What we know:
The chain has helices spanning 3-15, 21-35, 54-70, 75-91, 101-113, 118-137, 164-172, 177-189, 193-198, 227-242, 270-284, 291-303, 308-315, 320-324, 331-339, and strands at residues 204-205, 210-214, 220-224, 245-246, 252-259, 262-267. With 341 residues, the protein is mainly α.
Amino acid sequence: MDAKDRLFKNIILKMSNKLEEDEIRYLKNVLICEMENYNVEFIEEQKQLPSVYSERNIKLINMFLSCKKIEGKSQKTIDSYLQTLKNFITMFDVDLLNVNVNTIRMYFIKMEERGNCSVSLNNKRKKLSVFFEWLVEEEYIQKNPVKKIKRVKEEIKVKKPYNDVEVAKLYDSCKSTKQRALLDLLLTTGCRNEEVCEIKLDDVDFTQKQILIHGKGAKQREVFLNDTCIYYLEQYLIDREMKGIHSKYLFCNERRRLECGRFVADKMKTESLRRIMKNLAKNAGVDSSTVHRYRNTFCCNMLNHSDLLTVQYLMGHSNPKTTVGYSTLNKQKARFEHSKL
């Protein structure tokens, strides 16, 4: 069986469950007529061999990632770009300077077949588009082939916050000042996982009751604390000092090293924060505990009592549309406003 016959039979086989018998017959006739004008050749045997332009592909990707690093993108973002681009050039033996829109379409078809959800597909589309747009700006290519690929319609999921009963259970389950300080901080500020771990003692102003947050995209903002949060933060730092642990970070890990005659600890890892809050929720009998859910809860509460721009600033959102997405949480407020009618 030659390559053209294989292609013909593969198409008919894949479409047989989607089309009626008359439609299959019509499709066969169309394929026979159209394929007469083309030569089809399979190159599966060549996939194991390095392409003549693979070295250039890697250089282009590394140059792109270097530019993103200079722009201040986080290592997590850079790694995400790298993963997507490596996945793309591994799947298709292509020259990145000669990619067409059909190759891009095939990539997303294969990604969807592998079970990628709409959110994941849109994220990959965005990363590829940024890369090819960079190639255009650097004058390597003339057009961005991803621009013709439309975003996949995403299902809007309601972000569920903690209710008052769940928050009370979480507070009752705290076994240490560290747990209580973290819980208060997350519910009072709505900080992201990475932001909490990056807070240094110099960023905290206990007198003004505020913290300077170093957020995503090298952006800074101030978040504010209440008296209860201040109290438990101070208690945690006292307990830590009594154990002889010193750190420049507000929250540090349990592992320490001897440095200049005293025990010094590094910042708490994001994995450690997730584990602490997950164990806290498990002890409290609260389901689905993630650090981001505390952020949802904070945003929901703020939207019930403040304007959109203020909440956008406190959340560290670049786009107000992101903040508006949390407004789906305001069922209680909607019920109250509706009752006024």
